[in-house]
Amino acid sequence: MEIYVTNLSQYNAGKLVGEWLELPCSEEELQDALSRVLDPDKEYFITDTEGLPFTVNEYDNIYRVNEKLEQYVALEATEALCVTFLLSEGYDWNYSIEHHEDVIVYAEQNLEDVAYSLVEDGCFGAIGTSLENYIDYSAIARDLSYDGYREREEGVFYYVG
Fold it and tell me: Which domain of life is it from (predicted)?
């Protein structure tokens, strides 16, 4: 996960002075990198990012971005997926970190497979074997998408919050 930090006053003077920073890093490493890019100037902006799980604006606080990434890499893989899912659904960083445990991740790759699993698990009540052939799983899948179930590359996600 990287950001490109650019010296703002040099940029305004027509020079591109900047550096890619790999985050998260220690505060000392961050200060050293910023001093290389900014000295003697103090203003910067973020020109580009790669691999970040959240959106960064050009004038965001780099120390706060670094702190967020430290939190992110400390998560288990599934927890990180849940945080990324909540962020993609429009929730802010703090909310996503606090509520990632309220996301259910289904290993199935599409909503119709989830519909089959939910029927098998009895979520719609007991259904006799003579009626199983009449169940419209694609309609259940469509309704699940209306209820907030989302298909993603990593599986199907549902936020219960």
Answer: Bacteria
Determine the CATH number of domain 76-161: 1.10.10.1190
Please give the C-alpha separations between residue 94 and each of 21, 67, 124, 150, in angstroms, as whole numbers: 23, 12, 34, 21
- Give the model confidence (pLDDT) of 48-63 as tens digits: 999 998 889 999 999 9
Give tens-digit pLDDT for 110-126: 999 999 999 988 888 88
Return d(Cα 8, Cα 43) in angstroms, integer: 5
Question: At 105, which helix (H) or strand (E)?
Answer: strand 103-106
CA 100 – CA 8 distance, rounded (Å): 36
Pairing of strands 150-152, 103-106: unpaired
Helix (H, G, I), strand (E, B) or coil at 152: strand
Q: Which of 72, 123, 124, 82 is nearest to 102 (CA)?
A: 82
